[in-house]
Amino acid sequence: MGVRYSSLSLCSPTHQNHQSFRLATFTCDTKQKSNFSFYPTDKDRIFNTHYRRVSLFAITQFSICGLHSRIGNLKCGRVKEMETRQGIATKEALNLQSVDQDLVQKMVYDALVWSSLHGLVVGDRSVQRSGKVPGVGLVHAPFALLPVSFPESHFREACELAPIFNELVDRVSLDGKFLQESLSRTKKVDPFTSRLLDIHSKMLELNKKEDIRLGLHRSDYMLDEQTKSLLQIEVNTISSSFSGLSCLVSELHRSLLIHYGERLGLDSKKVPGNSAVIQFAEAMAKAWTEYNNARALVLVVVQSEEHNMYDQHWLSSVLKERHNVTTIRKTLAEIDAEGELLPDGTLLVGGQVIAVVYFRAGYAPTDYPSESEWRARLLMEQSSAVKCPSISYHLAGTKKIQQELAKPNVLESRFLDNKEDIAKVRKCFAGLWSLDDSEIVSKAIENPELYVMKPQREGGGNNIYGEDVKETLLRLKKDGTDEDAAYILMQRIFPSVSLTFLMRDGICHKDHAISELGIYGAYLRIKEKVIMNEQSGYLMRTKVASSNEGGVAAGFAVLDSLYLT
Amino acid sequence: MGVRYSSLSLCSPTHQNHQSFRLATFTCDTKQKSNFSFYPTDKDRIFNTHYRRVSLFAITQFSICGLHSRIGNLKCGRVKEMETRQGIATKEALNLQSVDQDLVQKMVYDALVWSSLHGLVVGDRSVQRSGKVPGVGLVHAPFALLPVSFPESHFREACELAPIFNELVDRVSLDGKFLQESLSRTKKVDPFTSRLLDIHSKMLELNKKEDIRLGLHRSDYMLDEQTKSLLQIEVNTISSSFSGLSCLVSELHRSLLIHYGERLGLDSKKVPGNSAVIQFAEAMAKAWTEYNNARALVLVVVQSEEHNMYDQHWLSSVLKERHNVTTIRKTLAEIDAEGELLPDGTLLVGGQVIAVVYFRAGYAPTDYPSESEWRARLLMEQSSAVKCPSISYHLAGTKKIQQELAKPNVLESRFLDNKEDIAKVRKCFAGLWSLDDSEIVSKAIENPELYVMKPQREGGGNNIYGEDVKETLLRLKKDGTDEDAAYILMQRIFPSVSLTFLMRDGICHKDHAISELGIYGAYLRIKEKVIMNEQSGYLMRTKVASSNEGGVAAGFAVLDSLYLT
Known about the structure:
Number of helices of chain A: 16
Oligomer: homodimer
Strand content of chain A: 15-25%
Structural class of chain A: alpha+beta
Number of strands of chain A: 24
Radius of gyration of chain A: 23 Å
Shape of chain A: globular
Largest sheet of chain A: 8 strands, mixed
């Protein structure tokens, strides 16, 4: 199993000399994409990582945090403040410590009201039916009260990468041999990837061509504090979430700064505009138009329970209101029951023609509890409907492919022509290695704190850190089985920590947090003609980086936007 | 106590011959403004009446329903249908019986999503904190799935009355002697009205002038099925609720008809535009401007717990976004603690100058649990802030004043000049009488089913119907005390019943329902100059009119809009 978090990130020249990290100073040591124990809703969680480890020492010191204990959720007061730790460097546009408490309370209240009136909401897990029936059990989505400072140059850099990654995913998807070969060892140890590859093989056998190719991706980055470089975490090619809610958070922050910016010394214009949902809807509508059947629908493949449904509904709503395109929502099991393939390849679901299949489920093993769901996936793949994503787009976003693309000369020889583009892509790649690279394995055993071991099979704290990296690597070396194919090694990224007001369940928590920037990209291609290839808004996610002495702390993540510095 | 529901409605010439009702046919017999057992949130309930009694007989039959038993809430299925009763006349633009079930399900889903995304929400009483903290425990506001048919001529009639009633309230408010004299007997038996009158007397003694007078009223009507006439239930001069949410329901209905109208045979353009919240905010902003202090705020007087807070927040939000006017929310107790009156009459709350006091609390005895709240009310009344409403506007909306204005020649001799206006007002008046009118009392004893006895003290099913009217009138006659001053008699109105889809808590109920139309009116006057006097949108409320054999049934009310026929 295990292609949950699609990733695309390579061994960057900058980080080949990873040994240099030993002498470096770190502010925060994050687990990149460690996961939850249950799949179904992971994709729509705000952070894919639940636990992050933070250096408790001063930033000029280097610390190894190897413990893995999980601590329960933070207890909350109305505005809760964690003890402040000396030495954490924050280069913030705003020093939150200096903000008047009354002003914070006012902003908190206004922000909660704003969220309720403007649909910045999710289903409240504590309320029954809230993941099934719209309109009941609503609660504001978790959000940061104020946008996080982010250098404009790095934001531009990330934005400029979007069309390049869009194109790269498309090219990788067309190289069936590369996908099959790269994933051949993973296939042996990961049943989920194996099933995806089987569908992919069938399509290759059928010589199935996807003339209309729609990609709605999100490439995630962190800003490495020490190197001041933007490093990619992964590219999501399936079910890139929060295009709907992220726009609202940007709007919320602009609105707060319009009213309170003067007192805070902040300018609302420095929150970049965000029209992710409008651009995603436009791309989908264009794909729908290309399909050329006025009666056809967009099928949103959903999980049977979805607490992040309003994010998805925003996209459907914009599709309907701006483009008069209707969506229907079906689970894979329902599609198996109601789906039908006409001889000409037309996909019918409940008797209705489907022009575009948009996956907001199907990325996790738990989305396929029986053969029924796999039949549905295959049925859709065989059809002439536009798949977002197709099976090859899906596979192009896997962690293993991310690592394979990181190998020297792969990008250059197979996928990209433009040298500037290649340089830009290389620049954002964190170090990424296969376990058959014995040199790296030795280095990681020597300095495990500089690496993360990521299993192909994700979903539930499976990432391995610190001393566990060393132990696992030594065990695998000794065993000498195929099990090593289930892992890749990735450079650990140390983003800066900043003081943040995090809003959850109506309560404001003041805490130290780290942020991850996601850049949406929309891509539409009809055979040789690229109809759309653009950067399409952004998502900032911010997560508590608090810690107890020497260990790991439970944290939570919120939606955020950015303030350009 | 009891000036909860402000009313203004007179004995109309049309209904002087109330005996004619005996021969009439009735479809539905409603309790006009019977109340709940607890005050604090009544004003913002969707219907002020919780229980209505319905004729179970065919419309050509007359029925007396005297029972008062309360039955628990209806049990609900996904789309619940009550048994259909033969003989109920509905002249609907749409025959709901013929609507395809699949189509209903689609509309239900879309409507629930729409509500969640567009802020058509309330606090869910079953969730703790939902009445105190914004952003948590949200649920869609109860609403009708489709607008109710309403004759365009009657809608226009109601709209045209708005500026006349605005002006009438203002004139009545200026006649201190009339207010005090009319309420003198009520004062003896109703401690709440008595306290309001005390404040009013103090203002008269101080010769306090309100130069800037702001009225945000709502006049409520029902369409009497038998006489085909629009009859007024009351005018609300304090805390006229739902200006925010009613606009959204109109928008929701328009949106549904844009998408499904063709299949339903309905035209979205026949749902009248509704900009109640924008017009109310504009009136408030103009009053704020007239107060002429750029730093001054609007004070919203609130209850400590408020599940209808989002309706109020919409108004504050529009004030802020469109007019850059800031509101603060305080309870009467907080105002007592933080309020201060400067020698020049300036009202300070928490050190901030208040330009406009907007009451969304203070209309019910339970809003004044101690002397603290009365002190706050007096403090505000003494100030130079614009009160919405002032004590005299508040009193002008009481039931007793409604009845006093109904006396022959009162309108003409004291308050209105224009004969056309007088005729229009008279036309909408239901019969309304004092209990010192022995002729009417005799008639009511003879035909109690044609009357409602309304106590000045409201709040908790205090209205008296049917045989109870007869018994109470006979007892009062025998006792010969002042107790009769606590009641007025009102003609009962029999609106038509129509099949309706009512949405509550994510569940669609198909049931027979009756509707009440509220027309908002905004009025602003600076001394002799009328700055604003207009009809300002509408509110339709629809309520289940179902019944068990021979008795009273529990029902619930939803927000609605109208479809002009």
